[in-house]
Design brief:
Strand order of the largest sheet: 2-1-5-4-3
Largest sheet: 5 strands, antiparallel
CATH superfamily of the largest domain: PAS domain
Low-confidence stretches: 717-722
Strand content: 25-35%
CATH class of the largest domain: Alpha Beta
Distance between the termini: 132 Å
Number of domains: 5
Radius of gyration: 49 Å
Shape: elongated
Helix content: 40-55%
Mean pLDDT: 81
């Protein structure tokens, strides 16, 4: 056991009792032998808590390995490499200490004396300064600031790396830095620099802020925003020493030039547009109007201050326009309104007027921009269309069949003719926007299924049950036809209803009289044919009224589809057999009707019909007829669009219980991948009809068009097939 006297003698009494130097003795296993009071105070431990324990108590397990490495190095080289260590206080805090280690001999054994000086405050200050330096450096680099310091008196010049890089030069020294700098200035900016220097000298203002051009090393000039301060004046306010920053604003200046050029182009554009375009101040007083507007009103720029705009708005519109202006001015919102302007001849013309507020950074309106588009012809066309629609509505109202329209959700829309009111009992205002009541929730579900089916197939026909307003059950024959918008989506469905309640209720009685049955069925088909004829007429009337060739074509296609159904009912009406259709007559009339409606010079196109069966069940004749309608329409439209001659061939045969159909034309054929592009809606309808027929089919479009399909015949027994 080493005594305190032996330790004091070995390390010296001055070190032993030092109030500033913390010292300790450790053996070769790095265990504490001694620690003076200063060391104990700095570490927070008592003497008995350290002596006999490893130095890991104050160093921590994480650095113990490093301590052993330093100890081994010290044994070999008699010096340490790491002189700064983190020492842990008993409370867990850390302090930074500089240590010095040496060996001492006590009774022949070697021990290690370690003296530590607490530099925690100095270390923290140094770290803080380093962080501030890094922050400043990051800020300078982040802002891409070129820093410079120029002593004009001593000719000393300093610039950071960003400054040199900005100009494309490597950092270097010049004997006459001022001369070097003046060679960089654009000749046109030299007077600006001299003017700023004279201002500082005459006023004593030590701040400067200017923009100038400096020559880059590659030869072109860049724009520089120079800001700084004179920190030392000489005699007569001569500038001795100045510091400042340079920021490359070349991109911003170029953007400004582009904006100016763009504004010039926009001004040219506004002057060339046929619209009336103007700008006004925050209170709405006009300060600019393009030449088209000035010519329309018969005004000149000098008239702006005394121009009373109310004199150029129809008297009927003044009050409404004034209210909209006051509201827009108060709420800082745009105006979108249709009203008339009076031109210099006193004529009233309809315009779509848009006025937009321009706001500053605080959200306050500082100006207004107005654009007025001439829609006079459009308004007049809408009025004409309204008259046409009124005529259509008169025809619908006069129809004996119940006609109304529903949207894709099954809700009643615009149409609800008197026959519908008479049949179902509700007035138009009672049903608009609603789904008609049904017998039960289950039936309403079926109704929505029928709506979706109609949307999918483009049409629907069948018999439904429904309650009228007074709770009476009705049996109704319903037909539905889809109306498509410009994008090809279904916008609404036109529904016709025929009351067959009495027919259903007296089915047994009617079945006893074949003649009466035939008469009633004939009347039904006649009325359906007439109703569909009304729809065809309505569509034809709309075609006559339309000026849009694309709309005319779509309406013609719809007309052909309805007509193909109407022809089936017409043939059934003229036939003694009300369950099947005379195919030969049907297809001859159908193809000729399509050829006539298409209004294409295709008189050289020959028709080759080879109909091997005389009739077909109505439920298959209608979809097959609609399918032929689409195919023939496409042939006339695409196969013979440029060719004036060729042929269309249709062959129908029965084999066993299946019907085989082959349709072809002598057109040039087409790429199957382009089919959807060329006949999007038609192809969808064809797919739907093929699905309805449950047909197997194959298409060949190489240098021609040919589709072969076959399907199981329904409703044709041995006697019917024997006729063929």
């Amino acid at each position: 056991m080493i005594s305190d006297e032996q330790i004091k003698k070995a390390i010296g009494e001055h070190v032993y009792q030092s109030k500033k130097l913390a010292c300790c003795l450790t053996d070769k296993k790095l265990k504490f032998i001694f620690a003076n009071d200063t060391f104990l105070k700095a570490s927070g431990y008592k003497k008995e808590e350290l002596v006999g324990n490893s130095v890991s108590v104050i160093l921590g397990e994480s650095v113990l390995k490093l301590a052993w490495a330093e100890f081994s190095y010290f044994l070999k080289h008699k010096k340490i490499r790491k002189d700064t260590w983190h020492i842990y206080h008993k409370d867990g805090s850390k302090m930074q200490a500089v240590i010095e280690t040496t060996t001492v001999k006590i009774e022949g054994d070697s021990y290690f004396l370690t003296i530590a000086v607490n530099i925690t405050k100095e270390f923290e200050l140094e770290n803080k300064l380093e962080k501030e330096k890094n922050r400043l450096q990051s800020a300078v680099e982040g802002a891409n600031l070129g820093l410079w310091d120029f002593n004009f008196y001593t000719k000393e010049f300093y610039a950071n790396d960003i400054w040199w890089k900005m100009l494309g030069y490597p950092p270097q020294k010049y004997e006459d830095a001022f001369k070097f700098y003046t060679t960089l200035i654009h000749p046109e900016d030299v007077p600006l620099l001299i003017q700023e220097k004279d201002r500082i000298v005459s006023t004593g203002d030590n701040r400067f802020d200017l923009q100038l051009r400096l020559r880059h090393k590659r030869g072109d000039f860049i724009w520089i925003h120079s800001q700084g301060k004179v920190i030392e004046f000489g005699e007569n306010n001569f500038i001795n020493h100045a510091i400042g920053t340079h920021i490359d604003i070349t991109r911003d200046r170029r953007s400004e030039l582009l904006i100016q050029e763009s504004e010039k182009k926009y001004r040219i554009l506004t002057e060339s547009l046929p619209n009336i375009i103007w700008t006004a101040d925050a209170d709405g007083y006009i300060n600019y109007m393009n030449r088209h507007g000035l010519a329309f009103f018969g005004k000149k720029k000098k008239h702006f201050k005394t121009w009373e705009w109310k004199n150029f708005v129809s008297k009927e519109d003044v009050e409404e326009v004034e209210q909209k202006w006051f509201f827009a001015h108060k709420t800082k919102t745009a105006i979108n309104h249709v009203h008339t302007f009076i031109n210099l001849k006193g004529e009233e013309k309809w315009f779509q007027v848009l006025i937009f507020p321009q706001k500053d950074s605080d959200g306050d309106v500082n100006s207004w921009i107005g654009i007025a588009s001439d829609i006079d012809k459009l308004v007049l066309a809408e009025k004409s269309l309204k008259i046409s629609n009124n005529r259509l509505r008169s025809l619908i109202d006069a129809s004996p069949a119940a006609i109304y329209s529903i949207n894709t959700k099954g809700e009643i829309q615009d149409f609800w003719n008197p026959a519908a009111e008479k049949l179902l009992g509700w007035k138009r205002e009672e049903v608009l926007g609603k789904i008609l009541p049904h017998n039960s929730e289950e039936n309403e579900g079926y109704f929505l299924e029928r709506v979706h089916e109609t949307i999918k197939k483009g049409e629907y026909s069948g018999v439904i049950t429904r309650k009228d307003k007074f709770g009476n059950d009705l049996f109704l024959e319903v037909t539905g036809g889809c109306i498509y918008n410009a994008s090809g989506s279904v916008s609404e469905i036109i529904v016709t209803l025929i009351d067959i309640t009495e027919l259903e209720r007296n089915r047994d009685k009617l079945s006893q009289s074949l003649k009466e049955k035939e008469t009633l069925l004939q009347e039904i088909h006649h009325r359906v044919k007439n109703n569909l004829a009304i729809v065809v007429s309505l569509l034809q009337l709309q075609i006559f009224r339309s000026d849009d060739s694309s709309e005319k074509y779509r309406l013609t296609e719809a007309q052909n589809r309805v007509h193909s159904i109407a022809m089936v009912h017409e043939l059934l009406y003229q036939s003694d057999d009300f369950s099947s259709v005379d195919l030969i007559t049907y297809y001859e009339k159908l193809i000729k009707t399509i050829q006539s409606n298409m209004q294409i010079d295709n008189t050289g196109v020959k028709l080759k019909l080879d109909i091997g069966i005389s009739s077909l069940n109505i439920n298959q004749a209608i979809p097959l007829g609609l399918l032929m309608n689409e195919l023939v329409t496409n042939s006339f439209k695409y196969a013979f669009e440029e060719r004036k001659s060729g042929f269309i061939a249709l062959k129908i045969r029965r084999a066993g219980e299946r019907v085989f159909v082959t349709y072809s034309d002598s057109g040039p054929g087409f790429d199957m991948s382009a089919l959807e592009f060329k006949s999007g809606l038609g192809m969808k309808i064809m797919d739907s009809l093929l699905t309805q027929l449950d047909a197997e089919y194959d298409i060949d479009s190489t240098n021609k068009f040919e589709i072969s399909l076959n399907f199981l015949e329904k409703g044709a027994g041995p006697l019917e097939r024997a006729k063929d």
